[in-house]
Structure formats: structure tokens, C-alpha cells
Design a protein that fits this description.
With about 120 residues, this protein is mainly α. It is built from 5 helices and no strands. Helix 4 packs across helix 5.
């Protein structure tokens, strides 16, 4: 039987556990209804996705410094993991946290756009 002494395995487990807890707490406190996002704000968010996210993930989301953000690349990625990554960033990587600039509902809308395909 294999033993799990690998620090990366423990870190991934803790990250997922915290993401689940984070999602539960915030889902109870905040309405995640994308209909609350105005049309002008949706335009701003789409521009942010194409320009800011695209600067690392590729202007067509095919990958670059960061991984691809296409529907195919994201199909096995959970919503919780994607939202947590956007809000909290990825320590030790160039992925910054966006929690100071985006609401949870806005991040949820962005994830919907990514799952559907940006273009």
C-alpha cells in the first residue's frame, strides 16, 4: 500500500478542502445570480477576460504563460476549483488573486463564459 508522504499531495488535498469550505461559506452569504450583473458590467468582464486573462492564457485562450482556458481544457475542472483559483490566485505562480476586483457572482459568470467558450 502506498504511503502519501508527498508534500504536494497534501497541499493539493488541503487546497481542495479549503476550496470546498470557501465555496460553502460564500454560497450561503452571496447570491450567485448572473442576472444581477448589468449588461455594461458584462462587457467590462468580457474585456477583462480577453485582455487581462488573455495576456497570460493567450488571446484566444489556447494557452501561453498560463494553461489553456478552452471548454475542452476545462471540461474536467470543477467550478469550485476554477472560481477559487480566480478569486485566490495560485501562490508561487504568476496567477494573481482577483478577489479585490471581482465579486463571487462576477467570477461565477466568467466561469460560465469559459465553460461555453469565450469566442
Amino acid at each position: 500500500m502506498a504511503r502519501y508522504n508527498d508534500n504536494n499531495t497534501v497541499r493539493v488535498f488541503l487546497f481542495v478542502l479549503l476550496a470546498m469550505l470557501f465555496n460553502t461559506v460564500y454560497a450561503a452569504d452571496e447570491i450567485l445570480n448572473s442576472e444581477n450583473i448589468s449588461s455594461p458590467r458584462r462587457v467590462e468582464l468580457r474585456n477583462l477576460l480577453l485582455q487581462d486573462c488573455g495576456s497570460c492564457h493567450g488571446m484566444t485562450m489556447q494557452g501561453g504563460l498560463g494553461p489553456a482556458l478552452t471548454p475542452e481544457a476545462l471540461k474536467n475542472k470543477s467550478r469550485i476549483m476554477l472560481e477559487t483559483t480566480i478569486l485566490s490566485g495560485r501562490p508561487g505562480t504568476p496567477m494573481p488573486p482577483w478577489d479585490k476586483l471581482l465579486t463571487r457572482a462576477e467570477v461565477s459568470w466568467l466561469v460560465d463564459v469559459l465553460y461555453a467558450g469565450v469566442n
